Amino acid sequence: MIIITNDKVDSGREDGRAFDEIRSLKIEAGVLKRADGSAYLEVGGNKIIAAVYGPRESYIRRLLRPDTGVIRCRYNMAPFSVDDRKRPGPDRRSTEISKLTAEALRPSLLLEEFPRSMVDVYIEVIEAEGGTRCAGITAAAVALADAGIPMKDIVVGCAAGKNNNEIVLDLSEVEDKEGQADVPVAIMPRTGEVTLLQSDGNLTEEEFNKALDLAIEGCMRISEVQREALKAKYGE
Amino acid sequence: MNIIPEITKNSIIGLINNEEREDGRSLNEYRDIVIETDLVSKAEGSAKVKLGDTQIIVGVKPQIGEPFPDTPDSGVLMINSEFLPMADPTFEPGPPTEDSVELARVVDRSIRESEMVDLKNLCILEGKKVWLLFVDLHIIDYDGNLFDAATLAVVAALLNTKLPMVKIENDELIVDKENTSPLKLTDKVTLCTAVKIGDKMVFDPSLEEEAILDARLSIGITESGKICAMQKGGNGSLSQDDIRIAVSTAYSLSKNLLTALN
Fold first, then answer.
1. Which residue in A201, B87, B161, B181 has the fewest CB atoms around it within 10 Å?
2. Which among B6, B10, B12, B7 has a CA at the least distance from the CA of B208?
3. What number does CATH give the domain B6-261?
4. Minimum distance, in Å, between the CA of residue B214 and any CA atom of chain A
5. pLDDT digits (tens, 9 = 90+) for A51-104
6. pTM as predicted
């Protein structure tokens, strides 16, 4: 387990972080017994558990592919994870995030080696404080590695955004709600290829480019913590 | 999910790597766009968009209801999409699929974040009565690129939406359907979608191109030049260059789409 804490500096952000500073972050690999792979992640006030089952034979016929394995994802928020109780079960937001998470993780996995199989990724948000989709992807990638699924890289996610007319990294809940834009990004850090990209809010082309660069820089830093978490469990 | 034979896939990739396409378009060229408005007289706003052979009908129905507690002075905009089984042999009746939810949410995000509809204008009585605008997307023929076609259709339908006049007399709402006023709109928005096939980014993908794509990127740009929404899809990845090139190309294509709307 690794903890990054940052020296606080004065800035315009409500929690006093510098524009390119991520919230304190903790990742632990292998936290569940029954799942094939798992991870626990905390970033700022977010608490997330990710679990992986598979590759196992696809019992859902319509998902079965004769030439490759497939990945399925379920992103779910606990009813008690937010201020006003969230009704349990999937809604439109979580359906979309589930789909995007599977698509963000898929490019890193060598599932062609497992035709007719499927990999299930379950992400449970125990407490939410802004940026859960990126945090979920970051945790799920560690859980996939913990499950021993062949992969060419460990996907990592981080958001940048615009708040008080400034492009900032890793938006908190308040910055996300009050901010002018939110750009969640996930990459494969070895090549820098982008596997998740959304944008919500108003940006000029220049601001978008800046946000993308900043998010990628954030991903690179979080990537090191992912690797440390795996090393802590499995040794060098 | 449509299955494309390996041989067709290879031929499409081969063509695209040569900057050619099966239907003779260039990589940044859209298919013909036909927009028809006011085709459902019972709907307060409606439009039908044909993008190549993809066809979408959109209807706007307003209702008077209560605002959300956290935005007591704003109306409500809701966008839903229905992938009708008639549109594709693999579409099934039933609850919305992931693809359908994604489409509705990306279109919703583009419209909402462009601030094209001023929701404050939809307030009738603060905290009590506001207009709820229901925008329903009916996909009737699926031949690729639903995202761009759906956004065009929603914008066209909103442009032609007329709300009944409402008066408050003795604490009672009186809706006057005979007299209407057009919905006030500001910054229009368009969505431009490119897919990565081979090592190229290809705009306005056809059905077959969508079935073999590595990754997809949709970019929402307002008339005033702001990026208001973006969504990556597909099981592959995009390089940072792919993204930057697609964004700057989308800026010029967005102008053509706006022309089609006007």
1. B181
2. B12
3. 3.30.230.70
4. 9
5. 999 999 988 888 899 999 999 999 999 888 998 888 888 899 999 999 999 999
6. 0.84
